[in-house]
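Appendix B. Raw example, untouched.
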Amino acid sequence: MRLIGTYFSRRVYWFEYDQFNLDQLPKDNWLCFANSDRKPDANKFKQFVKCGIQNNILEFKGHGKYGEELHDLFDQVMIDLELSENLNYIDIATTCHNDESYADAFWQCFFATTLPVRADLDDISIVCMDLNGKDRSVELKGIIDRFEKGWVPEG
């Protein structure tokens, strides 16, 4: 995982999903922005979700053609864990952004989040990844540059 920039006091990291080194994920206070334009490997993604929950992820945003499926799989793992572990409630918001541009959905990682009360708003990391193996870190860096110049989504 590598730092690609900071905006609005949030550090943005690129996670190489193909390498699947889950030990690199933050241990607390982070959200995930994941893109998938191909049907994801459900078992692999479920492993990622379980690790994210153990590492105190705050929010998950699925994007791309299969963004809704990512969102649904994340919710399914949360429900399975609540039932199997007899947990009261896992407070992680999940959303999907299939019909929005990549930049619009990424902007929401800064300004349209649904963070739980436990979030440290002064120390949030955003972990970005593409389940199709595409490295979009340069694209994200360019989007952050646009944000710094005042760009906001239309509508």
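End of appendix B.
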